[in-house]
Amino acid sequence: MKTQSWQTLKPAVYFLVKLILFYTMLIWLFWNYIGVSDPNGNYYFPVLDHFNALRMVLCFLLYPVQYLFQLLGYDTTIYFYEDLYRNGANIGAQGFFKLQVAFPCLGFKIMIAFTSLMLAYPGTKKWFFIPLGLLFNKVFLYTNVNRLLKGLHNPVA
Predict the structure, then answer these.
(1) CA distances, 65 to each of 21, 39, 56, 69, 135 (Å)
(2) Rounded Cα–Cα distance for residues 55 and 103 (Å)
(3) How far from the centroid of its chain's Cα atoms is residue 109's Cα?
(4) Residue 75: closest CA among 59, 96, 56
(5) CA 34 → CA 39, 43, 56, 57, distances in Å?
(6) Quick one: pLDDT at residue 82?
(7) Tell me: the pLDDT tens digits for 97-132?
(8) Which of 7, 20, 72, 92 is deepest in the core (most CB within 10 A)?
(9) Rounded to an integer, what distance in angstroms lies between the CA atom of residue 53 and that of residue 59?
(10) In angstroms, rounded to a whole number, what is the distance separating the alpha carbons of residues 8 and 31?
(11) Selection from 103, 104, 97, 61 nearest residue 76 by Cα
């Protein structure tokens, strides 16, 4: 009886162990990457300024929003702060609104959790769904556009 119950639990336990290991590994790699690419960090590696994942995600998020507002006739500007890791960037329309997008708002931990879940899940077609899910995560961040559009109706004094 004991062996039979272990046989039914074994796949779930194996999945959970793999999930925890993948998440731990990916979050460790992520924070180490942040540590060496942050100019204010102890282990700054200047070459990574050209491959800054945070800036790439901010560009992927903010430039389409800027294009959308320019199509609507608003003069929008994007400003990247010197310290991206603490301040991020902001997008604004002259006289209407300004929205700051900071590092915690970009969903890196959600992307890491999703990737860990997909890597731990048994199956072979997951390599198609990992990029698709990460892309969906970024598209979901475009819902911030809704907040921007609401900001157009409430001008800043």
Answers:
(1) 37, 27, 14, 6, 16
(2) 10
(3) 7
(4) 96
(5) 10, 10, 13, 14
(6) 82
(7) 777 888 887 888 888 999 999 999 888 788 888 888
(8) 92
(9) 10
(10) 36
(11) 97
Mean pLDDT of the chain: 81
What's the token pair of residue 48? 């990574």
Contact 54, 103 (CB under 8 A): yes
| Residue 24 tokens, joined | 């731990």
Total-model pTM: 0.76
Q: What is the mean pLDDT of residues 48-59?
A: 82
Q: Are 114 and 135 in contact (CB under 8 A)?
A: no
One-letter amino acid at 127 equals: W
Amino acid at 139: V
The C-alpha angle with vertex 118 and arms to 116 and 122, in degrees rounded to 5, equals: 115
Q: Which amino acid would we find at residue 135?
A: L
